Amino acid sequence: MKGINSTLILLLLGLLSGILLAPAFNLSLITSLISFGVILVLFSTNHFILKRNFSKNLISSILAFSVFVCIGLIEVDLTNPLRDNKHYLKQTAYNAETRLKLIVSEVLKPGFYDAKFIAQIHEANKEQTTGKIIVNVLKDSLYPETQLEIDDIIYVKTQLLQITPPGAPYQFNYKEYLKNRGIYAQVNLKPFEFLKINPIKHSAKGLASLLRNQINKRLEQYDFSTNSKAIFNALLLGQRQDLSNELKADYIHAGVIHILAVSGLHVGILMLILQFILRPLGNYRSSRIIRTAVIIAGIWCFAFVTGFSPSVLRAATMFTFVQLGLLLNQRQAGLNALITSAFILLLIQPQLIYEVGFQLSYAAVFFIMWLYPKFNAFWEPKNKIVKYYWQLILVSTAAQLGVLPLSLYYFHQFPGMFLVANLVVLPAIGCLLLYGLLIILLSTLNLLPLFLATGFDIVIIWLNRFISFIAEIDFLLLKNIYFSAVLVVLTYLVIISAGILFDKVTFKRTILFLSTMIALPVALIGSVKLQDKPEFYVNHRYQKTIFTQKTPTRTLFFYSAEVEDIPPGFIENFKENQLITEVKNDSLGSIFTHSKNTILRIDSLSIYNIEGLNPDYILLTQSPKLNLNRLLSRYPNAKIIADGSNYKSYVDRWKLTCEQQKIPFHNTYEKGFYKIE
């Protein structure tokens, strides 16, 4: 990778390692600071006194890497919102009546029954408080005026509730996702249960929200179809709340869902459009400075209009550094600027590394910048039309290679028609962005003619039809692909070593490439062996009992009262994350054997006095009417688990009894599914 600053890569990798290792090490801030000080002294001695260049000396490189590992550990600790003594979890308790003053900071995609928001807590019981929570407001046609907007102030007396954990293995962990965003609680409100006050002063995000609302009001006089308006809001205003599940599914299956999330793609296209428009300025130094300043200003204006969402802020920061790098006109300046922007963003907000959008954006842009010149050097057509589509193919392929391992890991599917879809969609997106920005400008000035609005609507309708057609080609959509974190790392090593070998074929590079190619199937074989370990799960399903057992032969058994009780997602999640050979359904029994454990299930019949039985686990299901103290005296060494088929009042009573007797108790309502090894 000639031209790429190896020092930047070394420091970024060190910072990344520190951030990712922080949860495992769980060091105190003092310990991290002491470690940082000691390693910094060693590095300074080695570098400044012994005059060893840390980019060329192994010991100095290791010490420099370790310094930034410590910085990563420190940053994770310092940016943890729970360090603040005024955080609501330090001042209030879950499920306790609390008077709150909230300020809405973000509008989320609504659920079927409720509207969802992120809000900052400013007061709890009249005490100054910090922290973010989820606000769920029940939909009610009688109270439409209670719709909340960014910067709205609401006063309410309610309970802080815990975020619901996953009810089954491999479900999306919404609780962990929100924790990485600094959100630890939620409130459920009815429209008449809170007092809303309009803000006196608006934040930048609030002003952007007002601007978007004004644009949408201006567009209401034009007869846009529902899906066209949803696409317009997603593409140009960064708002995906109005997208239907069917429309979103079509874009996912066609492999072009990225166009509906305003991020690196949109900001990159905008940057290219502005570069094309400003090309007549020439290539003098003063012209390049003016062009760079205008492009950066345009990028941040677009970020403002889209509401400074996290994905847009990342993309705007990333391309700002890319523009500055290109201004320097140095070899690989764009890649170095990209690495620098990632380094600075993670230094400011280390939890970004856990966001899928952050990972995909940087992976796609990095591999486009790195691989596209290599591919393009292989063949460059002379015909302009052929050249244009050849470049689209190369860009799409480079981006797909960049995000492929992460996509397989997170989404477990591969859209085989992605290249065909992108050949149509990418040129269309460039035109739609330009067209849409023109519509925004003209509608704001009340100068938008009907034929322009109608034309935009028609283009969107035909784009959606094309995406739907591509999505319907099911046999090219590969689903339920197993892909572990180890395979992600090894696949990236294969792609990178192949790219290095593509530059120049040498013995060392060939050995590196072959080693990674051998390591990939070896890791897969190792994964198969590790999955031979049996597992038993007590899943959480409201008013239902579902157990899951995986045998050493990787056969998956689902135990339930009715086969219909098992959601299809339960099975798909297992197939995506485990190398399952067979799936079987079986009826619920009273006694299960797993490894060396005996599991007793007690249902509404409350039968448990079984001669000679000494269970390791007792599963309480279907609200049995029993004396728990008597049960615990009969089986004092058993762990107690209550699933979602029980009345909550029963579960609360059982929990209190177990706490008094210091017996392990697992409530799936609060803690999610339970795994028995």
UniProtKB/TrEMBL annotation:
The keyword Transferase is annotated on this UniProt entry: no
Membrane topology according to the record: Multi-pass membrane protein
Domain (DUF4131) ranges: 27-191
GO cellular component terms, semicolon-separated: plasma membrane
Subcellular location: Cell membrane
Ubl conjugation as UniProt keyword: no
Identification of the protein by name: Competence protein ComEC
InterPro entries: ComEC_N, Competence_DNA_uptake, DUF4131
Major location category of this protein: membrane
UniProt keyword annotations, A-Z: Cell membrane, Membrane, Transmembrane, Transmembrane helix
Highest taxon above the source species: Bacteria
NCBIfam families recorded: ComEC_N-term (TIGR00360)
Organism: Leeuwenhoekiella aestuarii
Classification lineage: Bacteria, Pseudomonadati, Bacteroidota, Flavobacteriia, Flavobacteriales
ComEC/Rec2-related protein domain ranges (all copies): 235-502
Transmembrane region(s): 31-50, 57-74, 251-277, 289-305, 335-354, 360-377, 389-411, 417-440, 447-469, 481-502, 511-530
